Amino acid sequence: MIEFNNVSKVYSNGCKALSNVSLTIEQGEFVAIIGLSGAGKSTLLRSINKMHSISDGILNVNGVEVSKIKGKELRKFRRNIGMVFQSFNLVRRTSVINNVLSSKAADKNVLEVLFGYYSKEEKISALEALDKVGILEKAYIRADQLSGGQMQRVALARTLAQNPKIILADEPVASLDPIMASSVMEDFTKINKETNITVIINIHHVDLALKYADRIIGIRAGEIVFDGPSANITDDILTEIYGREINDDERMIKND
Amino acid sequence: MINYLKSLFVPETFTLSNGKVVKSKFNWTIYIVIALFFLIILAGKFTGFSFETLVDKGANFFDILVKMVKVDFAYFPKIVGPMIDTLTMSLLGTVIGAVFALPAAFICSANLNKNRIFIRIVKTLISIIRTVPVLVYALILTYIFGIGTFAGFLSLTIFTFSICTKMLYEQIETLDNGPFEAMESTGSDKVKATWIAIFPQLRSHYFSTMLYNFEMNVRSAAILGYVGAGGIGLILNENIGWRKYGRVGMILIVLIVTVIAIESLSRFIRKRLG
């Protein structure tokens, strides 16, 4: 369970990214965070695994008060939270399987990491993660040979191999074409339903958010302006989140 | 012509037919060229440069050159040993210096290490190490470890370390930081994250830096013998002293051929590394 209690974040340059955010996300939810660029979506997401630290309020993740931990404890805490990025963040000059295995490095000793030693069990678990996202046959190909959609799948497999309880995805489909974007979103849904991993996604494409997520959090200028089931989203609410009406051209997928 | 010369010194003003006035930007170039010209003349005065001496004594150079052309081929077997010494100390110095440079470069990279003050201190220390010429290290180290290749090897190690560190951290700072961030998000510490996410991006550049340093080291190793730090410089110094220019010619041929061979090989491999 993730609990934000009056959380605020002010950057050192004075920019206020979050103000008095309070919300609760239960285990197994599929949540999409929507809002304009700069509204605070990334800050909200990244505060959960302390990639950004909060300035005020209390943030509890699975019983851990995030602002209180650091160093070794923080790294151990991050083991349970996977993260997926807009630009995939794969190590392109190495094989797909090495990328997936890299999420297991945190548990290994430095010498094993230095020599790239992974046990047979670890390799099998990495391969299974690749199988889950449907690109098992690419395991021994260099990551830079893949298409954008495939790279994002590898990134997802890397996160799965980490056995997380929560997956944070920061604009995971923003650099993909619409078809790829939908299929990666389907992967997220599948993982969420089959494994009960909490999935929290920052997303620009409102229609993808409405189609795949169960719950929408709308954020504007650092404040939560909407929090509820996707079904309750109306054009008026979108207008409030985005400051103006969203027209059909701006939607990624036309409504059928 | 006058207008052109004038335009070099002062900005031009153009009046368009509709009355608008455009002024060109002030250009420093001509002033810098003039200043450099005077600096060169001044430098010549300071260093006691004179054309007379150059013409007068310059001829001696050709005398020696003529003597060197009468290469003493019989001396060749005596050169092989010192040449191998030179190569060995360059190679060892390069490899060991570069091995230590890798962690140092990681520590110095602003994108991996957020401790600005620490970085500043380490970078300053390394640039101090870099400022001291390799010949000076060799001189000092021969006093400590005695005359021989060990002092030469050690001075090349120190020099390579300082150069490689700088070349590497400048490269690291341009690399994609995303994978490193991803590793940190999985709970890896900085050491593991660096090794897994940064080193693969750096690998080919690292080996090419190493080869480049090896080339430089072979050249500087040749001179290290002058201060007693072993290798081919030792016999070069000896034979110049004894005015055995035929032998000097032979040594120079061996040295030039070796350096060219190593440079071409290194260039070939570096091209392959991409």
What are the key terms here?
heterodimer; A: 256 residues; 6-stranded mixed beta sheet; 4-stranded antiparallel beta sheet; B: 274 residues; mainly alpha; MetI-like fold; two-stranded antiparallel ribbon; flat
Estimate nothing, just give the exact number of structural domains of chain B.
2
Q: State the major sheet of chain B.
A: 2 strands, antiparallel
Query: Which strands sit side by side, in order, in the main sheet of chain B?
Result: 1-2
CATH superfamily name of the largest domain in chain B?
Answer: MetI-like
Mean pLDDT of chain A: 90
Bin the helical content of chain A. 25-40%
- What string gives the helices and strands of chain B in order? HEEHHHHHHHHHH
- The end-to-end span of chain A amounts to 35 Å
Characterise the protein shown here.
The complex is a heterodimer of chains A (256) and B (274). Chain A has nine helices and ten strands. Chain A has helices at 41-48, 71-78, 96-101, 110-114, 120-132, 148-160, 178-195, 206-212, 235-242; strands spanning 2-10, 16-25, 30-34, 56-61, 64-65, 81-84, 166-170, 198-202, 215-220, 223-229. Chain A is globular and about 50 Å long. In chain A, 43% of the residues are buried. Chain B has two domains: 2-49, no CATH class; 70-273, MetI-like fold, CATH 1.10.3720.10. In chain B, α10 (232-241) runs antiparallel to α11 (245-273). Chain B is flat and about 85 Å long. The model of chain B has no long low-confidence stretch (mean pLDDT 89). The chains are: A alpha/beta (256), B mainly alpha (274).
Short description:
The complex is a heterodimer of chains A (256) and B (274). Chain A is α/β, with parallel strands linked by helices.
